[in-house]
């Protein structure tokens, strides 16, 4: 595997230069970050306004919804910042830049991930704001307690792992199809949007789809059942972590299978 | 094969499966699930070995299999059959180990980070290739003397000119001090000055630093000025492997000669009864071919491998009083064309 | 005739991607389906006013299909792109006014999206849900007018966004703000009458309700046809503004020398 220290150092260089190049235009940087955060919040506001008017969606309050939203945003932000170009593998396949990465003495996935670091400050702002807002309220009302904080952090990390695994598996399909944008809209954009709401509002076929086919439900919904509602028990969190690791292993397998296919056919 | 070879290639094959596109309704979807394909042999039965310190030109028309070979040598593609050894190791099986000993430059695309300053790209690469900061400083120092990297040190790669970018790219491939360099069309699209500076650099890398270099190009000047050995690939097969000089001789393209006579001249044949071109035998050596005739001059061609220049002059001077002679050596470009 | 050629070229250019776009519709349908599920969930506990559950699913289905007419225009009508490449100077040199030129191209795009996005998406919802459909031919006619005006408004707004890029160099964020406003103020997900009062009064000072909310109300036979007058007024105002901006743009480009 990859030695951890060089990996960390690489990201430090990437983050530093990405910050430097964007800070060149300070005003633009601050303005666009603030706007990104506002636009992100508008999406939540849309649903929050409905709940403000009608109370709850099948027993879920606006704070619980904010919590789901925030977890999804933060998990996605971690995944898309650290593995930005996994999502853009299509470009590499079309323009042949993948060959370039194959000349490096490191695993190709590592080379791909360190091609780019995307600084998503707007998303971080929106996600943290929503998370603190909703958790504070639920703590005050006694719905959450001190242990909820480490649970939540664990959930964000395992969520990021799940989203990364789904993204990697989708990207790997590109070794056969080259075009992956349409598939990504389904497995990433639509799925991530769907899991911003409690899955039981969907008919059972769709709910099963988001639990077993494109398992975004494990990012926030499943562990929230325990953390927010105390349903099932702590083992639900363990299952979530287990699922995220299993998905990670499977998607890595699929990736290397796809890569070896690429190397033997050179599509 | 010699035991001290740095690169050995033995009976290398690469087939590509091309799926046959369907036509008609839902063609896109049906092609996706199609099992129909035909096989194209991109590289067919290629063997060669390269000694340390050689500078080799690898040439051939587009689609001949040059890039496919380079990709197999660097572990990007796996061969269908046959064997590649880079310093004794197979790049297909131990890609990462081999990659650490190679520098690879693709002229068409950059290996640098598009939005980052050149310097940052080197920092990242140094991390990847486990080059210590001291080593990096020292190597950059050496490369800076050769390439003048300082002038664009802090410039983002996207803002570099093509020539600067190529210099930065070549330097990037040398950061880990590899023994072997693969260059895929390093001079493509460059202006004359930039080409010249890249060539000067490559020559000193080869002659002073002892790097083994394999270069593909469409620019025959690259080959003539740099390489001591040429390999020609055509339709996946190696059609020539030897020196540039031998290649010239083997093809034996004719030298064009225009002779201007001082006064009237007499051809050894009767022009009115003969159609041009006409071959005049010279001793037992070969022929001088007459191409054009006007009232003061004659255009002839002859193969200089068969007939020496002096023999040709002696024959021509028997036709009349020679005033002036223009000789055109065959262009290397044309030699290559006849080989393809 | 020129304008028709521009439009049909834009339409035909898209045709080559239609297989991918039809596949993409699956994801688009899923988005609207999720929104409908939210309303169905809410409707189980409370009554949904004048709409009812069936009305709200019909509402979502119609807005989701209409988005491809009045929601998803080419970003800034492609002006930011041509400012970056310098193409804008060439476009301004042509003997055609930039505004109708870009507008006809965008109408081609809208026509394509209507055929290959709106119609298939709505048909899928029609199969999935029990949708309300207008009973009077006059409603169909009024809906068509409302949608055409909405498309026109969307083109104008995007033209404004695009033209400002010559001053700001970065118009991405304006485009995204526009999208956020569509989410909140155009009735994309919540009918406007259910917004808090201050937001309601705010949005009736903007063209946003005429993009989705007004056409949808008319289609569902809940809104009065005379609200189209509002659409018309906005069309006139925005057209004048666009023409004014083009003058300023021409001046600016001439000063800069392209």
UniProtKB/TrEMBL annotation, chain A:
Which residue ranges run through the membrane? 29-54, 151-176, 209-228, 234-255
Q: Which domain of life does this protein belong to?
A: Bacteria
The parts of the chain that form a coiled coil are none
Q: Which UniProt keywords apply?
A: Membrane, Transmembrane, Transmembrane helix
* Cited InterPro entries: ABC-2_transporter-like
Name-wise, this protein is ABC-2 type transport system permease protein
Pfam families attached to this UniProt entry: ABC2_membrane_6
Automatic annotation (TrEMBL), chain B:
Work out whether the entry's keyword set contains ATP-binding.
Answer: yes
Record-annotated ABC transporter domain positions: 27-260
Pfam families reported for this sequence: ABC_tran
PROSITE patterns registered for this protein in UniProt: ABC_TRANSPORTER_1 (PS00211), ABC_TRANSPORTER_2 (PS50893)
Q: Which SMART domains match?
A: AAA
Top-rank taxon: Bacteria
Is Transport one of the keywords? yes
**Leader peptide range in chain numbering:** none
GO-annotated molecular function: ATP binding
Q: Which UniProt keywords apply?
A: ATP-binding, Nucleotide-binding, Transport
* InterPro entries for this protein: AAA+_ATPase (IPR003593), ABC_transporter-like_ATP-bd (IPR003439), ABC_transporter-like_CS (IPR017871), ABC_transporter_ATP-binding (IPR050763), P-loop_NTPase (IPR027417)
Q: What is this protein called?
A: ABC-2 type transport system ATP-binding protein
UniProtKB/TrEMBL annotation, chain C:
Q: Which UniProt keywords apply?
A: Membrane, Transmembrane, Transmembrane helix
Q: Which organism is it from?
A: Paenibacillus shirakamiensis
Q: Which first-to-last residue range defines the signal peptide?
A: none
For this protein, the parts annotated as crossing the membrane are: 21-42, 110-128, 140-161, 173-190, 226-246
Q: What is this protein called?
A: ABC-2 type transport system permease protein
Give one Pfam family, short name only. Answer: ABC2_membrane_6
């Amino acid at each position: 595997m990859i030695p951890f220290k060089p990996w960390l150092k690489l990201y430090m260089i990437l983050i530093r230069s990405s910050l430097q190049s964007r800070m060149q235009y300070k005003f633009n940087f601050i303005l666009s970050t603030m706007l990104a955060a506002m636009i992100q919040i508008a999406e939540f506001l849309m649903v929050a306004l409905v709940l403000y008017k009608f109370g709850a969606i099948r027993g879920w309050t606006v704070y619980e919804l904010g919590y789901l939203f925030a977890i999804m945003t933060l998990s996605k932000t971690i995944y898309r910042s650290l593995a930005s170009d996994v999502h853009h593998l299509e470009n590499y396949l079309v323009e042949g830049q993948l060959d370039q990465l194959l000349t490096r003495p490191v695993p190709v996935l590592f080379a791909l991930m360190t091609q780019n670091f995307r600084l998503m400050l707007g998303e971080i702002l929106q996600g943290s704001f929503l998370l603190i807002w909703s958790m504070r309220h639920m703590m005050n009302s006694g719905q959450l307690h001190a242990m909820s904080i480490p649970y939540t952090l664990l959930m964000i990390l395992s969520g990021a792992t799940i989203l990364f695994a789904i993204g990697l598996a989708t990207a790997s399909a590109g070794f056969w199809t080259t075009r992956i944008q349409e598939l990504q809209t389904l497995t990433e954009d639509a799925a991530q949007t769907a899991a911003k709401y409690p899955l039981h509002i969907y008919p059972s076929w769709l709910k099963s789809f988001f639990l077993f086919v494109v398992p975004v439900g494990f990012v926030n919904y499943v562990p929230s059942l325990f953390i927010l509602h105390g349903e099932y028990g702590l083992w639900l969190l363990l299952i979530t972590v287990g699922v995220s690791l299993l998905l990670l292993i499977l998607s890595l397998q699929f990736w290397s299978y796809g890569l070896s296919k690429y190397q033997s056919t050179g599509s | 094969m010699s035991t001290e070879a740095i690169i050995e290639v033995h009976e290398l094959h690469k087939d590509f499966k091309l799926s046959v596109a369907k036509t008609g309704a839902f063609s896109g979807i049906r092609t996706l699930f199609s099992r129909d394909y035909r096989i194209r042999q991109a590289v067919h039965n290629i063997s060669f070995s390269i000694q340390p310190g050689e500078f080799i030109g690898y040439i051939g028309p587009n689609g001949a299999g040059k890039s496919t070979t380079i990709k197999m040598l660097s572990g990007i593609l796996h061969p269908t059959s046959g064997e590649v050894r880079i310093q004794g190791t197979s790049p297909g099986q131990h890609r990462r180990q081999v990659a650490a000993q190679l520098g690879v430059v693709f002229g068409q695309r950059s290996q640098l980070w598009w939005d980052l300053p050149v310097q940052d790209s080197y920092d990242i690469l140094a991390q990847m290739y486990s080059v210590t900061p001291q080593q990096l400083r020292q190597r950059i120092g050496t490369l800076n003397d050769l390439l003048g990297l300082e002038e664009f040190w802090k410039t983002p790669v996207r803002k570099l000119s093509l020539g600067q970018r190529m210099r930065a790219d070549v330097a990037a491939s040398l950061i880990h001090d590899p023994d072997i360099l693969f260059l895929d069309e390093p001079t493509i699209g460059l202006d004359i000055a930039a080409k010249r500076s890249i060539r000067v650099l490559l020559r000193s890398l080869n002659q002073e630093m002892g790097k083994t270099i394999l270069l593909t190009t469409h620019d025959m000047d690259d080959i003539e000025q740099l390489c001591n050995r040429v390999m020609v690939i055509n339709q996946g097969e190696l059609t020539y492997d030897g020196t540039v000089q031998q290649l010239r001789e083997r093809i034996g393209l004719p030298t064009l000669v225009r002779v201007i006579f001082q006064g009237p001249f007499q051809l050894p044949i009767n022009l009115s009864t003969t159609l041009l071109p006409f071959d005049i035998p010279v001793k037992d050596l070969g022929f001088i071919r007459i191409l054009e005739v006007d009232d003061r001059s004659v255009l002839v061609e002859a193969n200089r491998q068969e007939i020496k220049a002096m023999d040709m002059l002696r024959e021509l001077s028997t036709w009349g009083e020679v005033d002036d002679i223009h000789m055109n050596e065959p262009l290397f470009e044309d030699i290559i064309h006849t080989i393809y | 005739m020129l304008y028709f050629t521009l439009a049909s070229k834009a339409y035909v250019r898209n045709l080559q991607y239609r297989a991918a776009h039809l596949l993409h519709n699956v994801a688009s349908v899923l988005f609207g389906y999720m929104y409908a599920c939210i309303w169905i969930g809410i409707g189980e506990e409370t009554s949904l006013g004048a709409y009812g559950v069936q009305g709200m699913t019909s509402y979502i289905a119609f807005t989701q299909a209409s988005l491809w007419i009045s929601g998803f225009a080419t970003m800034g009508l492609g002006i930011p792109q041509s400012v970056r490449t310098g193409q804008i100077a060439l476009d301004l040199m042509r003997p055609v006014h930039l505004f109708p030129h870009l507008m006809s191209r965008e109408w081609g795009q809208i026509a394509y999206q209507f055929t290959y996005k709106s119609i298939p998406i709505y048909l899928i919802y029609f199969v999935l849900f029990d949708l309300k459909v207008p009973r009077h031919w006059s409603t169909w006619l009024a809906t068509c007018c409302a949608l055409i005006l909405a498309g026109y408004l969307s083109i104008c707004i995007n033209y404004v966004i695009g033209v400002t890029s010559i001053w700001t160099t970065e118009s991405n964020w304006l485009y995204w703000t526009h999208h956020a406003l569509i989410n909140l103020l155009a009735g994309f997900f919540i009918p406007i009458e259910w917004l808090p009062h201050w937001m309601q009064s705010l949005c009736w000072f903007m063209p946003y309700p005429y993009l989705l909310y007004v056409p949808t109300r008319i289609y569902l036979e809940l809104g009065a046809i005379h609200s189209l007058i509002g659409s018309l007024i906005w069309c006139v105002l925005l057209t004048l503004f666009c023409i004014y901006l083009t003058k300023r743009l021409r001046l600016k480009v001439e000063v800069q020398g392209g």
